[in-house]
Amino acid sequence: MTLPVRAPLAKKLIAVARPAMFGRGHETLTDTSVRDTWELTPDQVTLEGPDWTALLNRALEDLRDQLGLPQTSRLRAELHSMLLYGKGQFFLPHQDSEKDDAMVGTLVVSLPSTHTGGELVIDHAGESRTYGASKEELSFVAFYADCRHQVTPVRSGYRATLTFNLLAGAETPAPVVDSVTELAHCLTEHFTTPATPRYGGRDLGLPNRLVFLLDHEYTQRGLNWRRLKGADAEWAALVRAAAEQAGCETVLALADVRETWDALPSGGDPWDDYHDYYEDDDRSQSEDSHDYQLNELIEDEIALGWWTRPDGAGGEPISLHVPDHEVCATTPNARLTPYQAEYEGYMGNYGNTLDRWYRRAAVVVWPRDRAFAARAEAGSQWALDELRDRIDAGDLEGARDAAESLAPFWTRIGAQAGLLGAALAVAASLDVAGTAAMLLEPFRVEMLAREHAGGLATAAGRYGEDWTRNVVDGWFGPGQRAGTELSEWIDTSLLELCGALRAVGRPDVAGLLAAGAWRWTGGRLRMWITTPRGEVRQPRLEALSSPLVRLLEAADDELRDEITGALRECEDTALECLMPALRLADARRVTALDAVARDCAERLGTITARPPRDEDDWSIRWAGCGCENCDTLETFFGSRSQRIFEWKLATAGRQHVHTQIDSAGLTVRHQTRRQGRPYTLVLTKTDELFTRATNARHKAVNDLAWLTSTWG
């Protein structure tokens, strides 16, 4: 191929090319609204000759230095594609993916051609550089893979380039000795000085770690001490050497950073957002963060999601939110380009804020003697596995000391799905009651299943009845849970779990669990049976019917007697739970509800024996709060003949009456006639008073007939 690239040659190359693709997440796409260019794959391109090899090697040495890589490293270029851009073609801003474990960046070699437009624009750390091609000579541009870049539309002619993956060798720079010693002293001071919050207040204790944010983005695949980019390599080597001198361990991590700034559009009038608030309902939008003036940092949040192991052998997913007093950086986030920004304009009582999100790598440092706690806070699964390994290796004292170091944060991170079995095993093996209870404290009873019976039985046998009762009571204690979760656990897991516990000789533990389940279920029953409004009460009580059946099956004789005795003391509205429970029990052939069936039969017999409401009886049984208005209301409701009551009443009184009638679900229409002062409240008893009574009686007759024929 002869240079420069002229139109006839460009057209021949395009004839054998394909539309260029691009990556989005795990997908490889073709979309000319994002990337519009022609691509020749490496197997279609041959680069050879001593002149080319020598030229490329010289360029790579120069580019290595300009990229800030150590002089001891070797930079290699691996051909990725040949690209041709015709008139109007472009590539929107994007970042290159790391296509090889050793890849650190991209090299673009522009072939000489006559064209306009088609500039390569690269953004990084708040700076933007634009590169155009020569008409007569090759031009070389290299940049790190995390740098956002674009190709502007070609206005005329053809732009031709070769793109290479830049691969770096394994060497890292050696830090300066004096700098290492100075930084080691700083690390020692950091880890021996109690932290204070950003805005003052009490001491927070000694920091557990230091997170040193680097400037570049990396993937999990590319996060390696030997492949850090530019100044990151120098800073990381310095921190790592200082940490070693200060008796600390280091890992590399990937951090997600979010900042919320008080901000206004650059050059804009702060009142513009005030006016927009009343004119535009779509005020939340993604924006170029450089178009805003940042005034004050309101809050920030840093979360680590992945880190390498201290021995450098691979990495692992983690979840760790890092407080601001454990973070430092040489480059502020504001000088970097966020991968997402969202501006919230004036919203009446808040707004004019800019949220910005960044991805940064970090060097994480912690004292070697606190290594277990520092790692455990990022992964409770790892912590339990490590404790188990120490116990199995015979280091029981080491395991106890390590487990005790979890206390400051374990209740916050420990209760992850699937860890209860491991926690029970470790707790039983430690043979320290207080530490064992601490390990189990974060969990909730609905996480218990049949497979946990053995571990729970072992722990209960090791520590005794009082310890077990306290642990189980804690699992039933108040927490951030939906009532449906506990109800479902009673319905689906309690019976089998109690059976498994009795099978391994721990009926006492089964009794504790069943008793806790009854305390919760009984509390719910008492709450809903006293709810006046039937449309609210009935579905809640019916939902408790199946858990109640399972609970009675799981209970021992003593608890079953306690439950049935408590049910007999409930109001008749309990039938809305008990009758569905009996129907379920009949389908499951559960004999534990015989006493419940007898009680329901007595209740229904009493209801059906009552004479029906007289056709002229409009009285309503109701008791108010005891105030003067409620006394008047109670007199009207108690009247057998009075259906309508017109009542001149001020606003506060009317509101109180409305609330009383609605909350009780009474069959009374209440309307306000807005004439005169005060307005008149018109109360009217409705025919639903008779309909409800008739329906309730009819249902009681049918239920009693079914109960008699089914349960005898």
How would you describe what is shown here?
- The termini are far apart.
- Residues 273-289 have low confidence and may be disordered.
- It is elongated, with a radius of gyration of 37 Å.
- With 712 residues, it is of the alpha+beta class.
- The strands form 6 sheets. Strands 16, 17, 18, 19, 20, 21, 22 and 23 form an 8-stranded mixed sheet that branches.
- The protein is 41% helix and 23% strand.
- α3 (177-192) packs across α4 (231-245), α7 (380-392) packs antiparallel against α8 (396-404) and α12 packs across α13.
In short:
Helix 7 runs antiparallel to helix 8 and helix 10 packs parallel to helix 12. The longest helix is centred in the last third of the chain and has 24 residues. The radius of gyration is 37 Å and the shape is elongated.
Straight-line distance between termini: 100 Å
- Give the biggest beta sheet: 8 strands, mixed
Question: What is the gyration radius calculated from CA atoms?
Answer: 37 Å
Report the principal-axis shape: elongated
- Per DSSP, what share of the residues sits in E-state strands of 2 or more residues? 15-25%
Work out the helix count: 24
Pairing-aware structural class of the strands and helices? alpha+beta
